[in-house]
């Protein structure tokens, strides 16, 4: 770790720990979460010098990491039922099947083509931002760097692009049947 990251850690480690503890309400989980947060900070250490509000940036990383962990736990708990000590069925039978029916595959392909067509109709900056984020899976920081704009601008563009895509899908009578109720 370089001196700048050490300085950031010294200044904010107690704040981040207390935030993690407040979110998890468990000392062990808070320590695990804090470790993940600092691993992300070290991974993006090249961007630390460009951050205007370091405490807000660290808070965002912490909140997003907590949300990701929570969602992962929820997804996992949906697949593994409350099990007795001894199971009469194999554990693999408790997981939902990953194989799709032919109808599901066709519907998924149709929806994918429809979304691709709608993305192609977006204005240039929105289309590029959506492609960078969802197709190429660049981080917000990477997109901001590529497009020479702030992270806030990238977030705004993603938000507006999703809103516009939603409006376009609702306006398209063929696409409406694929939208969730």
UniProtKB/TrEMBL annotation:
Give the residue spans that cross the bilayer. none
Top-level taxon in the UniProt lineage: Bacteria
- Which residue numbers delimit the RNA polymerase sigma factor 70 region 4 type domain? 113-165
Q: Which InterPro entries match?
A: RNA_pol_sigma-70-like (IPR039425), RNA_pol_sigma-70_dom (IPR014284), RNA_pol_sigma70_r2 (IPR007627), RNA_pol_sigma70_r4_t2 (IPR013249), RNA_pol_sigma_r2 (IPR013325), RNA_pol_sigma_r3/r4-like (IPR013324), WH-like_DNA-bd_sf (IPR036388)
Residue intervals of the RNA polymerase sigma-70 region domain: 9-75
Which Pfam families would you find in this protein's record? Sigma70_r2 (PF04542), Sigma70_r4_2 (PF08281)
Keywords on record = Sigma factor, Transcription, Transcription regulation
Is Transcription regulation there in the keyword field? yes
Q: Which family does it belong to?
A: Belongs to the sigma-70 factor family. ECF subfamily.
Report what the protein is called. RNA polymerase sigma factor
List the source organism: Paenisporosarcina macmurdoensis
């Amino acid at each position: 770790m370089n001196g700048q990251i050490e300085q950031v850690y010294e200044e904010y480690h107690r704040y981040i720990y207390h935030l993690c503890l407040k979110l998890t309400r468990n000392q062990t989980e808070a320590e695990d979460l804090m470790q993940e947060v600092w691993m992300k900070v070290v991974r993006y250490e090249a961007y630390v010098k460009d951050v205007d509000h370091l405490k807000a940036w660290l808070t965002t990383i912490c909140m997003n990491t907590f949300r990701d962990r929570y969602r992962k736990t929820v997804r996992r708990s949906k697949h593994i039922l409350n099990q007795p000590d001894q199971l009469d069925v194999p554990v693999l039978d408790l997981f939902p099947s990953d194989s799709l029916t032919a109808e599901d595959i066709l519907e998924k392909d149709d929806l994918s083509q429809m979304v691709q067509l709608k993305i192609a109709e977006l204005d240039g900056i929105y289309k590029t931002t959506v492609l960078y984020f969802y197709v190429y899976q660049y981080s917000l920081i990477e997109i901001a760097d590529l497009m020479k704009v702030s992270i806030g601008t990238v977030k705004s563009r993603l938000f507006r692009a999703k809103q516009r895509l939603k409006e376009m899908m609702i306006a398209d009578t063929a696409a409406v049947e694929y939208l969730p109720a």
